[in-house]
TrEMBL record:
PROSITE patterns, A to Z: CARRIER, PHOSPHOPANTETHEINE
Top-level lineage group: Bacteria
InterPro entries to which the protein is assigned, alphabetical: ACP-like_sf (IPR036736), PP-bd_ACP (IPR009081), Ppantetheine_attach_site (IPR006162)
Keywords: Phosphopantetheine, Phosphoprotein
Keyword flag Lipid metabolism: no
Domain Carrier: 1-63
Originating species: Peptoniphilus harei
Protein known as: Enterobactin synthase subunit F
Species classification: Bacteria, Bacillati, Bacillota, Tissierellia, Tissierellales
């Protein structure tokens, strides 16, 4: 964390929980995602996809009506 400016570097690979997120804040995040993006996630999905890029991929796939399958091609 940059003490001078009061922020951390966050990118798409940042982990929500390593940045200080917890189950209570994750619940609030779920509410905001549903309100702003019209996409319903579960708490389990947040815990299973804590990196922002994975969360965004999950949201995009749900909005497109697709299932996310992880693995090698």
């Amino acid at each position: 964390m940059d003490a001078k400016f009061g922020y951390r570097y966050v990118d798409r690979n940042s982990n929500y929980f390593k940045l200080g997120g917890n189950s209570l804040s994750a619940t609030k995040l779920l509410v905001e995602i549903e309100r702003r993006l019209k996409c319903k996630l579960t708490l389990n999905e947040i815990f299973s996809n804590p990196e922002f890029e994975k969360m965004l991929n999950l949201i995009n796939s749900k909005q497109l009506g697709m299932e996310v399958v992880e693995g090698e091609i």
